Amino acid sequence: MGGAVRLPPYGEAAKNCLSLDSCYNPGMSNISITTEFTPNPHSLKFNVSVPICTHGTVQFASKEEAGKSPLAAKLFEIADVKEVMIGPDLVTVTRDEQVPSWSQLIPQVTATIREFLACGKTSPKVCEKCMDATHPSSEIEKKIIAIMDEQIRPALARDGGDAVFCGFENGVVKLHLKGACAGCPSATMTLKMGIEAYLKEYLPEVKEVVRV
Fold this sequence. Notes:
The protein is an alpha+beta fold. Helices cover 26% and strands 22% of the residues.
């Protein structure tokens, strides 16, 4: 996150997500997966050369939450995987803080992603708590979401993270941080000096940005 401006349980809305048959797909045999470090030392971003999720980014904070996503569930079977975020063309994995190195995890995570994409099994789910972000109730919410989607979220995604709009009330914007952003040491700086400053510059109605 640095200076760049750059999920809870899943409900019925999750049924709208991509769900593919479990069969070999020869078109996926040459998938490219590259790793990229993030500002959060415990989170690593895996860039994938093919689309994964058509509904933005989805955070899985536990193995229980990942039950409806075959890819996330499989990733949680890898020892020391603590959290998983699946995005349009990336997967951010957060490891246990006690693990000193990524050397064992990288090949296991890469192989798991490749296997599931080649077999067409991925089925990430959307965030029920934040799904109302697609149905803003006011003009100011529409403007906030537009700035988030066009300017801020793409910058966060480059660092393996995301921020989802969860509401606006009395001048306060509520955001849910995901992926590398969730546990990043500089998350507060990103939220206040990055996202908050950016929104306040363009929208005088915004007085504060908080994390939920």
